[in-house]
Structures are given as C-alpha cells and as structure tokens.
Amino acid sequence: MFRIIRRADVPYPPVTVPKSRDNAPPQASGDPPAEPIQPTEQTNVAPPDGSDPEALIQYLRQGNLLVVSKRRRNGLIIYKQFHAEFAGPGAAVGGLFDANCDRVIPVGDLSLMPPNSHEERQEAYLIRRQWIRLTQQFTDTSVALERARMILNQFETYFDAETVAKVTDEAFALLVGVLPNTIRNARRPPGKASMKVKV
C-alpha cells in the first residue's frame, strides 16, 4: 500500500529493484522469470523534450522508451482509449506501455531521457507500475466525488497550485474514472456547489 505523497516525502514511489540477470534460474515458485519488456521499433531520432506533445506521441508510438526525470517535480498524463495514466518521476514512458497512446499532457517542468542500462530500464518499469497502482487506490473508492478529491489532493500536495490549475478536468477525470463535471465540483471551495438557475 502506498501513502499519499506529501512534499516532505520522496518525490516518487520507493522501489526495490531485484538483482536479476537474463540467465537467472527460475524462481522458487516454479514460474519462469519474467522476460523484460523491450521497445519494439526504436528509432535513432533524438528524443523530444516534451515541449511538443505531438512529436512526443509519435516518438512513443514508434516503440521508443524514455524515463521521467527523478530530479524534478514533473510527469506525464498519457491518454489511452478509455482512460489515462500518470507517469511520475522515475517512471518509464513509451515502449510496449504506450504504443497505443492517443494524447499526452506534460505536468510540471517535464524532462525525459532514455535509460542508460538494462537496470535503469527495469527500475523505470517498476516505478511506472507503482504510479499506476497509486492511482488505482483512488479508483477503489466507490464515491465519484471522493475519487475526484483524492486525485486532486495528490496532485496539489506534489505540484504547485499553478501547475495543477493547468491540468484539465478531463485529464483528472480519465485518471480516476469520473465525469469532468465531478472534477469541476471537487475543485470548488466548500460551500460553492454547482447550481443552475433557470431564468
């Protein structure tokens, strides 16, 4: 179980990377070791810096793998067909994870870089999975407005208010499976509920 990230905490979910080699023997459970996920069709083009979302999408769709910088409060919201995922600091983006991405939204001062080794790639995959699990905890709550508040609180404790304000209601809604209007209501201060007046 993960805790809600606070500003004083580690800027990305902690991860323990198992020391494994490609020729390691099967695990004690009898299951064969999991094969590392590899990008499909990598290109030699320099990776985009994230300032051009369309160029970044094309780069990721080609199977290229990048890692969100651990040194900044940054991340990437990645739209899939029916939902969105957040990849925070240390997480892998691209490869087989995001070959079907429809759109990307940079959050914070985005910095992406290719992994330098097999170990870095494996660690990035594990961190990406942990960011997904963190968001999944919010979706376990059955009340839509509560899910909206939880994802907003998570981002507000990690990023500054200006950064959070730039993220659309739709993006937050797709992260936790609610309607954009639910996010809009959750953003309002207490006592400022949405009301429509017919004239």
SSE map:
Elements: H1 53-61, E1 65-68, E2 74-79, E3 84-87, E4 92-94, E5 103-108, E6 112-113, H2 118-139, H3 144-158, H4 161-166, H5 169-176, H6 180-187
Antiparallel strand pairs: 1-4, 1-6, 2-3, 2-5
SSE string, helices as H and strands as E: HEEEEEEHHHHH
* Overall form: globular
Distance between the termini: 50 Å
Strand order of the largest sheet: 4-1-6
Query: How many β-strand stretches?
Result: 6
| Poorly predicted ranges | 1-12, 14-41, 193-199
Helix-strand makeup class: alpha+beta
Mean pLDDT: 79
Beta percentage is 5-15%
- Please give the radius of gyration in angstroms: 18 Å
Helix content: 25-40%
Characterize the largest beta sheet: strand count, sense, and whether it forms a barrel: 3 strands, antiparallel
Number of helical regions: 6
